[in-house]
User: What shape does this take?
Amino acid sequence: MSNDISIVNFFLHRPPDSQPFACIPMGTMYLCGSIEKAGYSLDFHDYQLYPTTNPYSPGEIARFLLKTESRLVGISIMSNMLPYLLLGLRIFKRERKDAFVVLGGAGVGGFSAESFAHFPEVDAILNGEGEQAVVEIIEAFKGKTKWESIRGLTYRKDGVRSNPGRTGMQDLDLVPYPAYHRLDLASYRGFPVLTARGCPYKCTFCDISRRNGYAVGRRKIVNVIDEIEMLRRDFGAASISILDDSFSLGKNRVKEFCFGVLARKMRFEWGCMCRVDHLSDELMDLMHEAGCRKMFLGIESGSPKVRDTAGKGLGIKNVEDLISRAASRFQVTASFIMGFPFESLDDFRETIFLMIYCKEKGAQPQICVLSPLPNAELTQMPKYEKIFDPDTLSGMAYGEYTKKAGEVCSKALTGEVQGLIGSWPGLFSAFYHFKEGMVREKIKIAATYGLIED
Assistant: This one.
């Protein structure tokens, strides 16, 4: 007898010809934990571990999907793999005509009623958090409830129907721990932990806060520390990555976490993402004492004017000083973006100079090409033109712009894939960049200073 649902993590963190490493798929593990708590059966499949030299091949993707064991298939997808998945699903559905495919995750935000209607290999789309919704989908598939009752779902019934949106959960303690027992942990790198979900800030290039209505759902700190103790005891976790969009939201909450770790005499290393304007010497000293060793800072631009226009206003003048003070305590990655449509070449040179300063102070700068995410405010501004240039995709695909990743992306963009991306710019907007952003010129400038390969 088949399981109630097959859960698929469909994302890649690596070029296909490199040695594989996999990141623990925390989002799908949360789904599995919720399904198990509701008493339903499942099988789990992670595309990161699929042994293939060409993970972008529709045929390879179809062969992977044919390993699923249920008629109901839930797939979590990021934007960088969406066109390849859709082409693979066409082949998969020819073999498995009775399969009911539901797509969810950050990559589905660009679907409109028109584009959804064009891809019949997809039976439903879920926008929003999935832990409660996935149980509702199983029950609707079994006829126990109505599809109309599932918030955030777009599906086919006498045409295309879209239910009212799903709001984010505020009390994340209601969500079971991720089902780590379903993974062969020897195949993965690191242990992620989430203490909060969402972001209250209004960066125009990001869609995280808009997806959650600028609200932040939180877990109790004691619940978080209990999970970390479990990970160390049951799975031997030596280091933890806190994946909150900004762990430093609320200094008292960060202090509560640090004091809680110290009170339990827990010794482990951890890293987190922070806003630089949340940092102080007192807070950073406490974080270091509690084991923090890595910090990711989203600076975005060296130009205060660009940061303010992008909605990233940090509200402080001593950005450079705070980066230096953080780098004296932690292994700091300072992240920047090139390709803002309102960013002149002189503005970008300010970014270059700040990146050089970061290197001098011991921080590691990285830069990516701005991807127009479907639901980001900036993407939806009609005054900026979006263009598709296969040579500037690596920022979207692998985070940091590198020549190697650019070559991999270009090779993967077959004529069929490029045709799909060109036909549906709203759906695949993350493969585009802004014409006014002068990306090619900025790549040359960054290469001149040795910050990236040209």
